[in-house]
Hints:
By secondary structure, this protein is α+β, with helices and mostly antiparallel strands. 49% of the residues lie in helices and 8% in strands. The strands form three sheets. A four-stranded mixed β-sheet has the order 1-2-6-3. The longest helix is centred in the middle third of the chain and has 35 residues, at 280-314. The N and C termini lie far apart (66 Å).
Amino acid sequence: MAVSPLYVICIGAATYLVYRRFKQNKNGLLPPGPKGIPIVGNVADMPTEKDWLTYAEWGRKYGGICSVTLLGQPMMIVNSAEIMEELDRKGSIYSDRPRLEMGGELVGYSETLVLIPYGARFRTYRKHFARMIGGISNVEKLHGMLEGKVRQFLRHILATPDNLLPHLRTLTGGIILQLTYGIEVQENKDPFVELIENANANFNAATIPGAFVVDFFPSLRDLPEWLPGMGFMETARKWLKDTVDMVEIPYAYTKQQMAAGNAPPSFVSTLLEHEDSLSPEDIRDIKYTASSLYGGGADTTVSAEYAFFLAMVLNPDIQKKAQEEIDAVIGRNRLPTLADRSQLPYVNAIVMEVLRWNSVAPTGVPHRAIQDGVVGGFFIPKGSLIVVNLWNMLHDPTIYPEPFSFRPERHIPSADGTTPAQRDPRTICFGFGRRVCPGMFLAEASLFLTVASSLALFSISKAVENGVEITPVHENTSGTISYPKPFKCAIKPRSSQTLSLLAEEATH
């Protein structure tokens, strides 16, 4: 049934008045923030791109936590790592997700780990993740597979160095698809990689705060689609098909391989060994856990790896120092492995600095308060959205001096185990509370191996066109997952010796 616009306005006005009363209620004051206007609140104040920059500006003005209201919906914006740590300690209250009409309900991501409400199914998904990649020991079992995939990536770069970003997508997609479904991806435009990348791009667009008015007025879904402004429904249907394909097609492939008796071990094939004993709900949870692994890990890892190459183009002295460390520790008779990690502190520091310098999820995905609470001395009403500005925390000059410079030395531990940086960037960039990234050990291992192997084999420098060097700029795209904007670079073998080493490995 269609809803009267007047009814919507009245409900918005009433909700706004309730929100304003929270400012002086007995539970305490809401965090400060920009002053809104009746009914719509701060809708006009919300940024349309690179929201982390606006939030950081508000943080400088209002403090570590501030608040706005969007058509009556309270939203808390956290700019302080100390406030995030308090939220982390109270994770059972602040680990829910808001209902997102576009990205969650209409596009279908409400069933995946990233948006599923906090509860029994969420815990089931996390248990599946924990058994597969939930700790260092689990990931150690995957070292051989990771090293093989990175060697393939190096050969792809050697053959077509101008296709850096597609090769990184194939690398990360190949790791996750093999681990999850036992799928060996094709070298160029693999259909499974393209399938899931399309769905991830949709998620990125559908979950931008304020991008779709239906997120604020869910009843718009019931209006006739011929009305102005209802084009989001056609978009949602197209994106929902991509989501369903992402869930069902790789799963069906694994089932076919199992029926033929030639399915390699994978997350899905292992859990389906006793399929007869599984309920329809069990099967559903396996499907969505599997799709969540790719959806949550692929884009973020590729963004970090792409940022590494940009950092090396812009910082040749750092690249040279890292290569000197690799040559001194490993030599040039083999390529790095994950077992070398503890002996390569400078290379490991580059990995940490990549995670800090290039925030792959600048504001993460919003959390939702399950009940009334107090954070930083301010009242947080039940149902509040909580957006954490991870970018601001990773660029805090009091914690990371010269935050826009790429400085790995800030992460190198001294004899007593401390580092010049006052905070490990991993404690920020992988999220907080019960929603902390369950694939962080796999992501970090993959990133380290890609960084170390690329440094051992290649020289990464500025591209030259018409005799002129092209100096790229570190600028990020908007969206839930953020990438460095496309840049050009030159990737060449360091020597014929390392080149022949890679060729020898390919024959084994």
